[in-house]
């Protein structure tokens, strides 16, 4: 830093201000300092800086199964937001999100000296781990419910599902079947709740949902089960990967989409617009989830105050494509019977 200061003809305090984007530096001076940094190939010594500031400029992230689109996109959004704020990210990826595994991962990251932690907590087990958390390190959950009072950022799963169902009902479908995600996932629970609430509000029959595991295979198997259901004209599938499998099953059984059955997914994966037919789905803004979670975390790091419980809900939005349309004018089968299950 002293070499940069000598070459630029400024004090080392001015160099420090430029490096930290301090506003009280004249434009000409800033350009001169940056030119000297470039000429000398100066790189900041983060280890030395950490000794002085007691901050490593590194954030920890705990997640799992990054092959799934949702968690992978969430981690990418978090990483991009952290880098934009001048932080590095250290990721611990678990095979399964057990409470013990999450706590162990948090302990490992704490030992690495991270300044704060984001836990991607879409399952009940990870939410329970957050409830048992005792560290004073600033922590934010993505999903995670209200476990332990840890601040949380999540997509509005309930309202996203409601939009999907209302979209189909507006096309004249008498009811909407549902292929849900695994029961231990908070996102699956929210989408199931939104589906039921929309049908209840419209006074429509509520068919028994078919439980999947997020994979195209489970959607394919659900599709073959649904084909034989009387009165089937519309299906809301809890994610786009299962919707892909369902569309394949319908094609094999010569069920035309959307002429005979309309289909809506959830996630808006990049491939959704290229499905045969292009898939109507619910878009999740993972970039915004990342930005908001990092925003909360950095605010708590800088203030040194836990700030109490805080929850940010990011809106979901419908993306209408060719897989949804008007209900068939003639029904050759009876509408599905209500199971009598209603949301509270």
From TrEMBL:
Residue ranges of the region described as Disordered: 322-344
Residue intervals of the HTH lacI-type domain: 1-53
The name this protein goes by in its record: LacI family DNA-binding transcriptional regulator
GO molecular function term, any single one: DNA binding
Organism from which the protein derives: Kribbella alba
Keywords noted in UniProt: DNA-binding, Transcription, Transcription regulation
Coiled-coil positions: none
Bias type Basic residues, positions: 328-344
């Amino acid at each position: 830093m002293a070499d940069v200061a000598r070459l630029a003809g400024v004090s080392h305090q001015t160099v420090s201000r430029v490096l930290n984007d301090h506003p009280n530096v004249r434009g000409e001076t800033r350009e001169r300092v940056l030119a000297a940094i470039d000429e000398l190939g100066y790189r900041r010594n983060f280890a030395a800086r950490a000794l002085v500031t007691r901050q490593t400029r590194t954030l920890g992230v705990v997640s799992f199964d990054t092959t799934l689109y949702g968690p992978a996109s969430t981690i990418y959004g978090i990483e991009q937001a952290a880098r934009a704020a001048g932080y590095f990210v250290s990721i611990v990826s678990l095979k399964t999100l057990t409470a013990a595994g999450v706590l162990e991962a948090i302990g490992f990251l704490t030992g690495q000296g991270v300044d704060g932690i984001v836990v991607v907590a879409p399952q009940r087990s990870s939410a329970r781990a957050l409830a048992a958390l005792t560290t004073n390190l600033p922590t934010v959950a993505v999903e995670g419910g209200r476990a332990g009072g840890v601040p949380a950022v999540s997509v509005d799963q309930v309202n996203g599902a409601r939009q999907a169902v209302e979209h189909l009902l507006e096309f004249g479908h008498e009811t909407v079947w549902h292929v849900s995600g695994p029961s231990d996932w908070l996102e699956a629970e929210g989408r199931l709740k939104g589906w039921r609430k929309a049908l209840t509000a419209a006074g429509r029959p509520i068919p028994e949902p078919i439980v999947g595991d997020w994979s195209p295979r489970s959607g394919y198997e659900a599709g073959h089960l649904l084909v034989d259901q009387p009165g089937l004209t519309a299906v809301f599938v809890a994610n786009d990967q299962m919707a892909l499998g369902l569309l394949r099953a319908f094609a094999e059984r010569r069920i035309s989409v959307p002429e005979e059955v309309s289909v809506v997914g959830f996630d808006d994966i990049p491939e959704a617009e290229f499905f045969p037919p292009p898939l109507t789905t619910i878009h999740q803004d993972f970039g915004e989830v990342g930005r908001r979670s990092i925003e909360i975390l950095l605010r708590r790091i800088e203030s040194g105050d836990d700030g109490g419980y805080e929850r940010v809900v990011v809106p979901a939005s419908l993306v209408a494509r060719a897989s949804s349309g008007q209900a068939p004018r003639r029904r050759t089968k009876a509408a599905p019977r209500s199971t009598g299950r209603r949301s509270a």
